């Protein structure tokens, strides 16, 4: 079987998501990917470089998901709730958001992680802003809300919710936060 770098990045992302950057050894990565450590380093140069590729891939998948979700027809409110649910990991895997986890673990000491996280969060906020503005135009949301401010609040709620999800607790509590955040628009 031929080694596929893209599939390896996906699998590495899942391992980092479960264990964090510091909690994942190069040997565990090699085992997860079904390759030797030499192949790991030959293909990805370092654990750090593989982690950066995994974070970039995570960003791509999240943005592709959001683009598809918000380009579909229909009411905005349920799509915003779905986006927050998926992005925070509510009811799915209880691991939160890999980007939030990475920023919490390494952000203060790693500008590469900060840059990738900031870019993703900025782009999510822009998607939320556009959705809120569209919801205002359709009459779903209060026109007195400032879309930029409301989008910032949704992003902050999603990031905080991701931390709560990772810490554990009942999904009902998290869904109530999502409902309150979006219904308040």
Largest sheet: none
The CATH architecture of the domain at 57-183 is: Orthogonal Bundle
* Strand portion: under 5%
Overall number of strands: 0
Number of helices: 9
Summarize the structure in words.
With 185 residues, this protein is mostly helical. It has a domain of 127 residues: Tetracycline Repressor, domain 2 (Orthogonal Bundle), CATH 1.10.357. It contains nine helices and no strands. Helix 4 runs parallel beside helix 7. The longest helix is centred in the last third of the chain and has 28 residues. The mean pLDDT is 91.
Reconstruct the topology from this structure:
Elements: H1 5-19, H2 26-33, H3 37-44, H4 47-71, H5 76-88, H6 98-106, H7 111-138, H8 147-167, H9 171-183
Characteristic key phrases:
about 180 residues; mainly alpha; Tetracycline Repressor, domain 2; about 75% helix
Question: Short summary of the structure?
Answer:
The chain is mainly alpha-helical.
């Amino acid at each position: 079987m031929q080694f596929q770098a893209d599939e390896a990045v996906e699998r590495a992302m899942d391992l980092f998501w479960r264990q964090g950057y510091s909690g994942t050894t190069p040997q565990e990565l090699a085992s997860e990917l079904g390759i030797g450590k030499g192949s790991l380093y030959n293909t990805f140069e370092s654990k750090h470089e593989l982690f950066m590729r995994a974070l970039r891939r995570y960003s791509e998948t999240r943005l592709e998901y959001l683009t598809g979700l918000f380009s579909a027809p229909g009411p905005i409110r349920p799509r915003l709730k779905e986006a927050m649910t998926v992005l925070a990991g509510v009811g799915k895997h209880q691991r939160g958001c890999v980007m939030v986890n990475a920023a919490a673990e390494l952000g203060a000491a790693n500008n590469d992680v900060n840059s990738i996280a900031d870019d993703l969060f900025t782009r999510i906020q822009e998607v939320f802003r556009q959705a809120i503005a569209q919801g205002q135009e359709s009459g779903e949301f209060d026109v007195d809300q400032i879309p930029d401010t409301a989008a910032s609040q949704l992003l902050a709620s999603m990031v905080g919710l991701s931390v709560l999800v990772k810490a554990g607790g009942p999904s009902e509590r998290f869904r109530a936060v999502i409902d309150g955040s979006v219904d308040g628009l």
